[in-house]
Write a structure and sequence with these properties.
Layout: H1 15-19, E1 25-29, E2 35-39, H2 49-53, E3 68-74, H3 77-82, H4 88-98, E4 101-108, E5 114-119, H5 122-125, H6 141-150, E6 154-160, H7 161-173, E7 181-186, H8 194-208, E8 212-216, H9 220-223, E9 231-234, E10 239-240, E11 270-274, H10 283-287, E12 293-297, H11 300-309, E13 313-318, H12 320-323, H13 338-348, H14 350-356, H15 365-383
Parallel strand pairs: 4-6, 6-7, 7-11
Antiparallel strand pairs: 1-2, 3-12, 3-13, 4-5, 8-9, 9-10, 11-12
Helix pairs in contact: 13-14
Length: 384
Amino acid sequence: MIHIVDKAQCSGCTACAASCGVKAIEMITDRQGFKYPKVDPDKCVECGLCEKVCPFKPGFHYTASPLHLYGVRLKSASELTRSQSGGAFKAIADWGIKNGYAICGAAFDKDFNVRHEFASSTDETERFRGSKYVQSNLDRVFNEILLRLRKGEKVLFTGTGCQVAGLKSLCQHKRIDTAPLLTVDLVCYGVPSPQYWQDYLAYIRRKSGNDIADVKFRDKEACGWSSSQSSITLADGKKIFPQRNFYNPLLFRRSCSECPFTSFSRTSDITIGDFWGIEKVRPEYLEDNRGVSLMLVNTDKGNAVFEEIKSDIDWFETDKQTASQPQLQRPNPLHPQKDAWEKAYASKGFESSIRQFGIIVDPNPIRVKLGAIKQRITRALFKK
């Protein structure tokens, strides 16, 4: 049976729980808000499948290096504006809906929890757009995907590299035909816990004296694509720009520091992310600050999709050296204050800890004004 001794060796992908035919495994939240598998020994039949499907085990099979690497940007100016980067996900999701796929991606619920959900129309996939720098809730999602695949239904799954690896490993060991499955993973920097995220939102509500209407982890419309500035729109319509962003390596899951999926050896059919360094090869894409996506086409299946979305995108081929970025070379190292942060958080709570460790997120009045100016300039550029 699976037993997590070193938390750095579990990404919380839920593949082990989904593999258990007797439902002996439950994903339990620890004091930091991250989920880990716990086995009920009275139910366990010692089949060992939960250990076999784990994508963090040594010798896990990866795909070969990408067949092709591209810079990608939607041709539609309005859709590009609404996309976090160059709109690669939008192009793939639209293709998926057109070809009868159920799209499974990360969305905010009404309380801004991040959950993987299913969509069967273009309108429904809108909630999957935009970065969500929080670990998503995958409870029962893999089981639903297996059920759909057994029925011969098509599924397009988007998630982090560890999530895609867990799903594909699960399908392999459950002997599920993956011909109807298309997988898209993201170039991932690491994931904070859902608990930290909700603590952060509660902090913002208390400081502002208002409820939250919308969240953007990177506000492209207000600050441009190259900015990492987040924004929060309050219920009264005011938009605030936190002085420091919530997305901080100190808050990442421990497994992110030992992630085996931070290389050009991918587990998905297609990998998407931001094309950082675009100014070296296509400076005009940076000048208008509208965004451009990096797309790694890793399999023949992924290549077939790319060929069919070409008419909706502007694209150019690139190479590993040009497209390389830290999370395609190595994982983020464990923050040197990680142990101290976890102890402080467990004993003092979120607000006290973020001040102690310098993760101050109070809205900055000057930044609010600068953000408003950037928003007007960016909108003017988008209209050109």
